Amino acid sequence: MHLIDWLILVFFIILMFGVGKYFYRWIGSSDDFQVAGRTVTPFILAATMMSTNMNLYNFIGEAGSAYQYGISIIWHEWTGNMALVFAGLFVIPILRRLKIRTIPEYLEMRFGIRMRILIGVLWVLRLSFWLGVVIYTGVTLMQGITGVESFIFWLGVLSIVTVIYTCLGGMFAIFVTNTLQFLMMLAGSLVLVPIVMSLCGWLPGLIEKLPEGHMYIVAPSGPFSWKFTFAIFVLGLQWACTDQGMLQAAFCAKNIRSVAKGVILGGLALTAFNFLIFAPGLCARVLIPGLENFDLAVPTLLANYMVPGVLGFTICGLIASQMSTIDSNLVASATLFTNDVYKTILKKDATKKDILRVTRIATVAAGIMMIVFAYAVPKLGGAVNAYLTLIGIVDMPLFVIAIVYGLLWKRANEKGALWAYFIAAIVAGTARFGFGLSNNLTTFLSAGIALVACPIASLLTEPLSSEKTEKIWKAREPSKEEIESGDEYHIMPKTNIGKISIGIYLFGFLLFVVGTFLGMTGTWVASLLAVLGMLIYFLGGFMKFSLE
Q1: I need a labelling partner for 379 at 20 to 30 A (CA). Which of 87, 200, 238, 386 fits?
Q2: What is the mean pLDDT of residues 231-244?
Q3: Could you tell me which of 380, 382, 403, 400 has the C-alpha nearest to residue 106?
Q4: Bridge partner residues of 40 (DSSP)
Q5: Closest to 278 in 3D by CA, of 60, 538, 52, 40
Q6: pTM of the model as a whole
Q7: Which tens digits make up the pLDDT trace of 41-66?
Q8: Taking a C-beta distance cutoff of 8 angstroms, is the pair 137, 322 a contact?
Q9: Cα–chain center distance at 76
Q10: Considering Cα of 341, then 344, then 345, then 346, what sign does the dihedral take?
Q11: Coil/strand/helix, residue 219
């Protein structure tokens, strides 16, 4: 890096501090800090969704996987975007009507206090581990580009900057910085991708020079094969419906339609943007073959092919993508601890001032745990493998309990939920670490065990009182406020255009499933059908919220 690159980076860091300090004066209550007063509009929500879900895990970890295995890793993102549309249409509006701040709060409302405490504690740790994965990729980037190879130095710098502006300004600061960071991230990608693509001979040259099979969108074999596509779609549904870091932004929306519109627009826009993540990884395979550490693919490209000034600007864009994920998840982790542990167990009569103070302290604590967990990532096989291992074991049982049974089966009770979660997580963890089961199979194993264990344990124990489920079932219909404002959102369509939209949506999903299943044959038709099905799926979802 040259002097001008360092100056650009320092200016960017100072700007982030300034935003946090400015919004410090806006924070008068825990609502302001945790959910931005529930005032966020759809397009700001969409931008935040995009910036939160685009980070150096993608640009470093996933681009590294594309370098090693090919373009089929792109389904890690595309299926997540499909899941966002599903959640925006059918699940998040229900959660927003309940006016909750955290998923554990919903779990207490649906099942009981023990379920809330269990998931609240576990998810503080789970989010902190995810933050460790993200910060690790940032450190890897800066080590590879700057020549300053100290892991501790970069870990400290990147952590301190993000924790301070998040702690000062809360979600208000996050929405502003995330919008700014998304624009910088987009600009940085638009600078890097044309340069490396031109060096490879654009798309025709890239396809010709890559190893055979690297451009299979649905691959017949390998760690990111057609089986991975099915598994990651299921994991995407879990993420979009229950991930506190993502839902933290959705809960800030000013009304139900803003939630649906913002989440769906974010998913649609991300799909087009995703190629900008994976193109550098593929180009690096051509331009810099033989890398031993695949996570260094993009950092090495930047160090070798970007001119001074442009390099500094591009680094800021990539660092911005990291910060936008960390800040949202820091607040999510702090909100979980404050609402589901502090207020629920430690101090039930806490004042608003107490809650705000503890939320800020918890934000700092989450940052410290993030630093600790960053050291564990290399021992788990790198960023992508570490994250997939975590969510396959811990997250899938929660999705089955909270969404599948929580929203669809009234007889599910707290004991059934607790037993299902423990059994599924323990068995899946044992299979993964004790017997070396793949991440794909671990995902289906944990989900399958939870699907079986929850109804068995629920039916063998006493049912919940009807009050536990009445409020949840009522939230599936438009609220009184929606009706009075004339801005109703119906989860199940009431108009002909709405029903046609759902039909298109389901047809697209069916086509996606057929194409993915045909991926085992290794034919181009499989990739064509899967991608076409995804696009039709998006079309149906867009029509549902925009035309009905």
Answers
A1: 238
A2: 85
A3: 403
A4: 253
A5: 60
A6: 0.79
A7: 556 666 666 666 666 677 777 888 89
A8: yes
A9: 11
A10: positive
A11: strand
User: What gap in Å lies between CA 445 and CA 437, rounded to an integer?
Assistant: 10
Query: Apex CA 361: angle with CA 360 and CA 362, to 5°?
Result: 90
Burial 403-435 (b: 16+ CB within 10 A, else e): bbbbbeebebbbbbbbbbbebbbebbbebbeee
pLDDT in tens, 151-193: 888 888 888 877 776 666 555 555 566 666 666 667 777 788 8
Q: Which of 45, 322, 6 is nearest to 185 (CA)?
A: 322
* Tokens 């879990």 found at: 238
Angstrom distance (rounded) from CA 32 to CA 17:
19
Distance, in Å, from the CA atom of 331 to the CA atom of 327, rounded to the nearest integer, reads 6
Q: How far apart are CA 266 and CA 445, in angstroms?
A: 30
- In the numeric block, which tokens belong to residue 311? 């390099």
Answer yes or no: are the C-beta atoms of 222 and 72 closer than 8 Å: yes
Task: Round to whole Å and give the CA distance between 413 and 331.
Answer: 30
Separation CA 164–CA 370 (nearest Å):
14
Backbone phi, psi, residue 40, to 5°: -80, 135
**Under DSSP, is residue 215 helix (H, G, I), strand (E, B) or coil?**
coil
